[in-house]
Structure formats: C-alpha cells, structure tokens
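W.,

You were right to be curious about this one. When I first looked at the sequence I had no strong expectations either way, so I just let the prediction run and decided to look at it fresh. Below is the sequence, 323 residues in total, followed by the output.
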Amino acid sequence: MLRFVIRRVLLMVPALLVVSAIVFAVIQLQPGGFLTQYLEDPRFSPQTVETIKRQFGLDRPLHVQYLRWIQGIVTRGDFGYSFLNGRPVAGLIWERVGWTVFLALVTIACTWVIAIPLGIYTAVRPRGAAATAVNLVSYLGQAMPDFLLALLLIAFVLSRGGANVGGLFSPQYIDAPWGWARVRDMLAHLWIPIAAISLEGVAALMRQMRAQLLDVLGADYIRTAHAKGVAEQRVLWKHAVRNAVNPLISLAGLSLPGLISSTILVSIVLNLPTIGPFLYDSLLNKDQYVVTTLLLISSLLLMVGNLLADLALLWVDPRIRYQ
C-alpha cells in the first residue's frame, strides 16, 4: 500500500502542473484585464499604467509569466503578489485557508453523522411517519439554496432577540486570545453556517445511502443470511450497511473542494473568513496569481481527498487491494 500512496503522490505533480497551466491561460482569455480599470481612469497616465505592468511582469509573454511564476513556487515558495493590494498571495490565502478547511471538515463530519443514520432508518422503515417527514426535509434541503437558508436562519435568530449572526465571532472576540469564552462565542455563531452549508449535503447523502441500502437488502447474500438464521441486527450492520456505504466513501473525496468553492454565496451572506468570497473578488478583478493559486489549491484538495477516500475504502472493505 505504501507504493500505491507514493505513486499517487508523485502523479499529483504533473497533474497540478497541467491544471495550473490551463487556469493561467484561461484567465488571460477573459476580456479586459486588471489594468483596464486604470486605463479607463483619467487620474492614471499611460506611463503610470506601463510602470504597473512592468512591476507585475505583465509586459512579458504569457509563457514567460507562467514559467517565472512556477519557478518562484519551486525555488522560493513564492506564489506571486496580489494585484489588488501588492501583498504576497501566500500570506493572503494563509489568512483564510485555516478557517476554510476547519468549516469544511466540520461540515463533512456533521453531514455524515446525520445523513448515514437517517438513510439507514428510511431504508429499513420506508413507510413510517418519521421516514416520510425525513424524506420531506430532504426534498426541501436539495431544493433550497444554501444562502437562502442562511438568510432564513438569520431572520429567525434576530426575531428571537439573538445577536450571534454573521461571522464566526462577536466583535469583542475577533482578535481576543483563545479561551473558553472565545470558544463558546464561536460555537454560538458556528451553528448557522454549518446548518446552511450542510443541509443540502445531508439531504443528498441520505438519499444515496437509502438507495444503496435498499439495493443491498434485496441481494441474494442478504436473503441467504436471513435463511441461515443470522440475527437481524448483524445482517443489517455487518453485511448490508458495510457494503452499502462503500460507494459513498468514494464520493467523499469530491466533497472537500466542493465545500470550498461552492459556498461562496453563503460565505458572503454570513461574512465568513473563508476562501470563497476571496476567490469571487479575485475573479471579478482578474487577479491572476491569486485565482490560479486558489484553483491550484482546490485541485490539490480534490486529489488528496480522492486519495484519502481510497485509503478509507481499503480500511472499510478488506476485500479491496491496491497494487
């Protein structure tokens, strides 16, 4: 298995190079550019615009810009500078990546902890009142946009006299040192973004688990286990659930980058310090080094997520062997 992991890690390098080259080229295909706003502003002379262009290396051919950027990453860990404020890209992303990964991991954990038991329950007891209510909520979860749910939760909290809405901390705790008071304040704010982001994932994963388990429960080996007199709970958990969850583990590798890139609107609505709004602003302003780095990180997370999903699948199902 160690050889499998090493081979997968080594294959990530050329894949990331291809992704970065494609993204770098696609950004240049957009009409206009970062300097367009200066050309249209009478306060900036053409000489000033040319100076800014030379400062950021935009006067060079596209392939030269890309190679210099890659060279800076490999030799110095330098991802370039943001066009908007002149700060290093790595520092700007590092300020946000911690909270982004934290929210993504908490959301994934909550999604699985809630969705898997609900999927099992609705598959085992598909015609009860509770199963009908859960299925109704799942339909609403898949149909309702996450930012709309965030707005509804904010309105609900405000209507009850609450104030813990927006961001992850109250103003007095934003720069405060860590302690129990700051942790409690974060938890009071955290449930709204987690609920808004995870509801759609819970609904989708629950329905997938239900469908997979219903298929497995009708398989021949399940009927054979029942005929041999194996206990119902043992058949359900050892044979049915364990086999039904395998395809869902493979899909889990796609969820981490999806949570980072697909929650831009809810992050803007709730004023979350995540990468999503930062990526949105960078795309609008054609900040090419920031956009390319963020999409490169998203691709890396996708590859790492797939690798972790494969390893988790190996742990869950010993029959699987990776050569």
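Here's what jumped out at me. The radius of gyration is 24 Å. And, maybe more interesting for your project: The domain at 99-286 is CATH 1.10.3720.10 (MetI-like fold).

Coffee later to discuss?

I.
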